[in-house]
Structures are given as C-alpha cells and as structure tokens.
Design goal:
230 residues, alpha+beta, Double Stranded RNA Binding Domain, 4-stranded antiparallel β-sheet, 4 strands, elongated, disordered C terminus
Length: 230
C-alpha cells in the first residue's frame, strides 16, 4: 500500500533518468509526477467510459500538498457523480475565448431570453433567485455540455436534504432550462430526458414497516393463541 506523501517527502524528491508517478497513499487517485528535467506536478488518474484518463491539477510547488489534495478531492467527487474532469477542462479551454458555453453564462442567457419574457414578475424573481443561490454555485465554470443526469441528481439530493419543496422547484426549473438548451442546440440532448423522481417530504408518523405490525420493534406481531383443538 502506498504511503501518504508529506511536505518533507516532496522537498526531498529528486529527479531521475525516468519519468515517475508517485501515488499519494493519503488520497487514492492522486499522483505526484516527477519529470527527468526536474519539473514536478500533480495529476489524478481515473477511468471514464471504460477508458483510463488523467487530469492534471497543476505544477508543484504552485500547488502544495494540501492544495493538491483539495483539488483532487473535488475532481474525484465529480468523477463519482459521473463527470469527467479532464474532458471538462478541455471544453473550458475551448470555450475560454468567449465563455458562451459556460453554465453560468448559459443560465444568464436563459434568464434574459426566456424567464424575463415569459414569466410573471414574481415567478421570474424566484426563478432567478434559485439560479443564483442553488445552481450557479454548484456548476460555475463548467461547460454546459458536461452536465450529466447524475450531476443533476446530486444537486437535487443535496437541496432535498435541507428543503424538499425547494428541491422540487429547482428540478422543475432545470427541466425547463435544459429543454430550452436542447431547442437551441446548446446541448445535443437534455440530461433530464430520462425522468428524475422528485424528492418527497416524509409524513410524520408514517414510519411503519409493511411486514411489521408491532411498531418496528424487530419482531413481527403475533396473534393470541386460540383454544386448542380437541
């Protein structure tokens, strides 16, 4: 098992004649890359769509150990949600010139062209509040084409944990948003083409188990014994 890297280990790292990738036992998936030239950097190794991928975080010592782990954790979280950080980075680089494909810019365009023109003032105000407080902070800086159904599910689940009703409203708004994006060929296909079940508020007192009739004590209810047959 790989040992956790330390600041001291990194300071003492020397280049050799070969390129090396040293795994960080403190965060599986994170590697410290040492080039024969002496250049050092950080990378995350993972698989996406069945293929091995590498996401470069940045150079060392611009990224110290703690910063590299933080960036790697964010990338690994995205991977666990079905995302591909290396592909996202490539898309961001491609869209960098005008930023037209960045999610926050597409959301602003949606608000200006659809919400402001087709919604009542109070509804428009609430939609834009949800965009600014619930959606943008999660997906800012990401290319709209990189947002997956799993990303949407994770966002809705996180909101539902604290506000189920709001989660339903944000999900409804995202359905409108991605349908609008699809109509305008901003995305090839909405990630919400397949239905996501809205979160439901659990009713108080509705905690009984269908197979347990004794208040979920762990034992099924028993019937009182009748008279023995003679």
């Amino acid at each position: 098992m790989a040992k956790a890297l330390t600041a001291k280990t990194l300071e003492n790292m020397k280049p050799t004649g070969n390129r090396r990738e040293i795994p960080d036992g403190g965060l599986p998936g994170l590697y410290f890359v040492v080039q024969p030239s002496g250049a050092m950097s950080w990378a995350v190794r993972y698989r996406a769509e069945g293929k091995p991928k590498k996401f470069t975080i940045g150079a060392y010592p611009a990224f110290e150990l703690a910063e590299a782990r933080q960036a790697a954790s964010k990338a690994l979280r995205l991977i666990s949600e079905g995302g591909d950080p290396a592909a996202d980075k490539a898309l961001r680089k491609k869209a960098k010139d005008d930023g037209s494909s960045l999610t926050e810019n597409v959301l602003d365009d949606f608000a200006r062209r659809h919400i402001d023109k087709k919604c009542r003032p109070n509804t428009a105000k609430e939609y834009k509040r949800q965009i600014e407080t619930e959606i943008k902070p999660k997906w800012k800086g990401r290319d709209i084409r990189s947002i997956t159904r799993r990303n949407v599910s994770s966002l809705i689940d996180a909101i539902a944990d604290r506000a189920p009703t709001l989660a339903n409203r944000v999900l409804a708004l995202l359905r409108k948003f991605f349908a609008w994006c699809e109509e305008r060929d901003i995305v090839d296909l909405s990630p919400l083409t397949k239905r996501i079940t809205p979160p439901r508020r659990r009713r108080a007192g509705n905690e009984s188990c269908p197979t347990m009739k004794s208040g979920c004590s762990g034992k099924p209810a028993t019937r009182s014994a009748g008279p023995l047959a003679r």
